[in-house]
Amino acid sequence: MVALVEEFLTARAARKPSPHTLEAYRRDLLSIVRLIAEDPDAPLPLATLPISALTARTLRVAFARFAATRAVASIYRAWSTWNTFFAFLVADGVVAGNPMPAVGKPSAPPALPKPLRGEETPERLLEAVARDDDPRQRYPWPERDMAVIALALCAGLRLSELLALRVGSLAGRPGERRVEVAGKGGRARVVPVEPELDAVVTAYLESRERRFGARSVGRTSVLLVDRHGEPLRRGGLQYLVESCYRRAGITDRVPAGAQLHALRHTFATRLAEDGANAAEIMRLLGHASLTTSQNYIDVTAGQQRAAVRANRTNQSLGRLLASVVPPGP
């Protein structure tokens, strides 16, 4: 079984998922494999566990044990991973059929947006990042930090998409600038770049050329680099964004588990607030499903109604009506 898992991961790697996604696949698969191998009624050595040990019954038992200590989202993700894994095994002729339909799964949890909290929080973040007088910074580079935050906040880019950007990813004539994004699942997209964002990226590239020379800004060069001129990596980018939140004093306004993704969600939420429809949000964000894009519109509408409901004038009107309108029969 362990060898088959590795074969599956090798096959999935050809689709260029992020290292984080591949690791999640491995974790979900091996967690269930271990639970089957450790079955109290019929324990088997993990290293030699045969594919024949994976039956609908053993999978149901393993998933029941797996679900006991995990959230709905984790259970659903693991079930989906195993369903994809068995589709791979069927296609390769390793097994005759997929037993996963016989294994219970929870309903897919709604993927609720997690934007930055507070109406003025994005502007507060940008103002803080633009300054270079923060004594907590040992190696300040406000132009680079501003480019990172602005690309996520004004173009809705994911972490992996930011890391994949090249200098030449920004193209087009002035007034028609765009960023060409290598999106999730191989779905490429183009996001318009407004003059303000263009100016931020241009200022960053000029500062980079002053630091590292003209060769550092060739079209094929990685767009985002560290203070040594080396390509930013996942951990470095995450740390950079977290430090920007701390400098702006908004760590309490960042939803748990969101970090850089909160900037992307803020971009999408503001699109919905300003009247963009689900199809437009889907194209700009690179969503695979229109349902995901519709969530931003639905949540925004709910937030707006909640704000109106909380309006003190509405509450006063309710009290007035209660005092002058007799109750119904």
UniProtKB/TrEMBL annotation:
GO BP term (any one): DNA recombination
- InterPro entries given in the database record: CB, DNA_brk_join_enz, Integrase-like_cat_sf, Integrase_catalytic, Integrase_recombinase_N, Tyrosine_recombinase_XerCD
What are the coiled-coil residue ranges?
none
* Any Pfam family the entry gives: Phage_integrase
One GO MF term attached to the UniProt entry: DNA binding
Name all Tyr recombinase domain ranges.
111-309
Under SUPFAM superfamilies, the record lists: DNA breaking-rejoining enzymes
**Which keywords has UniProt assigned to this entry?**
DNA recombination, DNA-binding
Which residue spans traverse the membrane? none
What PANTHER family does the entry give?
A: PHAGE INTEGRASE-RELATED, TYROSINE RECOMBINASE XERC
> Per its record, how is this protein called by name?
Integrase
